[in-house]
Amino acid sequence: MAKLDESLNGWLENALRQLHTSTIGKVESYDKVRRRATIQPLIMQKMMGKSPTPHAVITDVPVMFQRYEIDGAEKECTPVLKQGDVVLLVCVERAMDQSLSGSMAFPDSRRRHSLTDAVIIGVIT
What CATH class does 2-123 carry? Predict the structure, then answer.
């Protein structure tokens, strides 16, 4: 029974290491017109029995912006990201590909809490 517990605990630990909620990354490049960035996650990944390794670079990461009303006029505030900025990434619960256009969708991918579905919500440093 101890071996089964150990195996289940190892499996659960590996699964939880792949569940991402939010993390930090470094801006490699930024397309201000499209509001998309290429990001290198800064928290390394570790698989059971292996040394920590960097995550792959994430491309085409959406960058959050804000829309405000200032003195009666609507203003859109677009972030300015610079190469080397450290940003906060939030990972969407399910695959977001089909919903980014504003459409209601049932994700056709099994991705959950994946770095592939990260959104930049702000600059940290």
Answer: mainly beta
